[in-house]
Amino acid sequence: MLRIAVPNKGSLSGPAGEMLHEAGYRQRRESKELRIVDPVNEVEFFYLRPRDIAIYVSSGRLDIGITGRDLLLDSGADAEEILPLGFARSTFHYAGKPGTADGVADLKGKTVATSYEGIVAKHLADSGVDASVVHLDGAVETAIELGVAEVIADVVETGTSLRNAGLEIFGEPIMKSEAVVIRRTDAGTEDPKVQQFLRRLQGVLVARTYVMMDYDCRVEQLEKAVALTPGLESPTVSPLHNEGWVAVRAMVPSKEAQRIMDDLYEIGARAILTTAIHACRL
């Protein structure tokens, strides 16, 4: 069986479970379950702390895992990203009291508190900055107030907690993170089961990104309509019973669907419909 690590809690857990369910895999019903078997798909899921997943995968005990890019890089584990999943997006920044620094170069000789010591130490080294790094497991915003550090480095989503602590972001982002599928770096020949798993997740990503659009249009307007809805390879065009009309079907980006519908209507298309895509293979 394919052995897969899944986050057991936190912002990664819920969306990961939803994506796996959409991909056709059995998922746990209670948070207390730490391991379940999906015999139909020949997969065994292990629910682990997100921060530990890269370590388990790099050890070879588990074949692949879902974790955050930030957690993968911070772990220093011998594992690599093989598919970004598009959820749990965040940006990693330095922050401090107003006027503390303008960029990473100003951190020379300062102390930085963070829960991601590996990422920060590497970023400082790559930037040629000699600064101290203090590891904290959480609530790093209080480190400055309590005199533990002059600067913090943390994941920033809305920035509300930083502002409440009287801190401001400075400099360029250290990195951007999201949920990713990872595998041991020296895994070797591609496993067909791993490839099938990735195809299923990619199908979910496509289904979430696109909708199917159907509409009718006059033949003389077909080229303009197709230019608006080129599809992935090419749209499907079928003649209608009424001479001079055709039916067109194509996948379009869901974020642009309303605008495309407006543009199609303007050139004379009618009966314009969109439907959700629940599964996909490209």
From TrEMBL:
Metal-binding in keyword set: yes
> Which positions fall inside the ATP phosphoribosyltransferase catalytic domain?
49-203
Coarsely, its chief localization is cytoplasm
Q: Which GO terms describe its molecular function?
A: ATP phosphoribosyltransferase activity
Please give the name of this protein: ATP phosphoribosyltransferase
User: Which key words tag this protein in UniProt?
Assistant: Amino-acid biosynthesis, ATP-binding, Cytoplasm, Glycosyltransferase, Histidine biosynthesis, Magnesium, Metal-binding, Nucleotide-binding, Transferase
Segments forming domain Histidine biosynthesis HisG C-terminal: 207-278
Q: What is its EC number?
A: 2.4.2.17
Question: Pathway membership of this protein?
Answer: Amino-acid biosynthesis; L-histidine biosynthesis; L-histidine from 5-phospho-alpha-D-ribose 1-diphosphate: step 1/9
Per the record, what are the reactions this protein catalyses?
1-(5-phospho-beta-D-ribosyl)-ATP + diphosphate = 5-phospho-alpha-D-ribose 1-diphosphate + ATP
Protein activity control: Feedback inhibited by histidine.
Where, per UniProt, does this protein localize? Answer: Cytoplasm
Role summary: Catalyzes the condensation of ATP and 5-phosphoribose 1-diphosphate to form N'-(5'-phosphoribosyl)-ATP (PR-ATP). Has a crucial role in the pathway because the rate of histidine biosynthesis seems to be controlled primarily by regulation of HisG enzymatic activity.
Which EC main class describes this enzyme? transferase
One Pfam family recorded for the sequence? HisG
Keyword ATP-binding included in the entry's annotation:
yes
List required co-factors: Mg(2+)
- Domain of life from the UniProt record: Bacteria
**Which organism is this entry from?**
Streptomyces lancefieldiae
Q: Report the sequence similarity comment from the record.
A: Belongs to the ATP phosphoribosyltransferase family. Long subfamily.
